[in-house]
Amino acid sequence: xxxxxxxxxxxxxxxxxxxxxxxxxxxxxxxxxxxxxxxxxxxxxxxxxxxxxxxxxxxxxxxxxxxxxxxxxxxxxxxxxxxxxxxxxxxxxxxxxxxxxxxxxxxxxxxxxxxxxxxxxxxxxxxxxxxxxxxxxxxxxxxxxxxxxxxxxxxxxxxxxxxxxxxxxxxxxxxxxxxxxxxxxxxxxxxxx
Length: 193
Description:
By secondary structure, this protein is mainly alpha-helical.
């Protein structure tokens, strides 16, 4: 009985491996396409590369008529592509969250800069000292609008990079205004003496 069941299994296995595993190859390709659509090229490039390499190895095995290896590599490619899609979704969600937090922090810093500009104007800081901060305010506002649009369009990495540079410029402008206000206040105090 065991010999008979072993023989039947061997016949089924050899029959299954007597032709290319086209169904598995197609499923692997579909999984890779889905991973790309999920953003794996940006957020999970390593598992996506592994999946495409495994699929290519499966196709190479088909060309050599080694259908057992082809089947194994095609199944492996599909699993790797599914992992790439999962990692891409996780990475995309994390990057979106980080980008939105960076935009919120930059917007808060921009409000602080605008308040510093008002304080500097009240302290009668000269127009020459106010001009760089005013220009930074204008550019930062435009950059924040672009970053928000990038987030809405799903370009989270682009939004995060743009906002990071903007926040740095805002911080520098705030520091410059603080120094200008301090210098103006010091001059005003000396004149009163």
